[in-house]
Description:
Elements (H helix, E strand, L loop, with lengths): L4 H74 L1
Amino acid sequence: MVISIPLIALIFTILGGIGSLVGIYVVLKTNDTRQESEITYLKERVTKLEHNVSNELKEIKDLLLEVKIELAVQKERHQ
Length: 79
């Protein structure tokens, strides 16, 4: 059986196209994985920041309560 040069070229073209599609798939999959890990990292950071803000707000609330108490004591002394 004689295989012509155009047939060989066609086979290699098809194989090249398949290789390109596989390469594109791998790149897209890698980008998805990277984006998912970035999203997970950002979610963890947001959770930590929310916790920190919550703690800071509790601390501010406590300080405001101390200020109110101190103002009430000073007001009582001046009367």
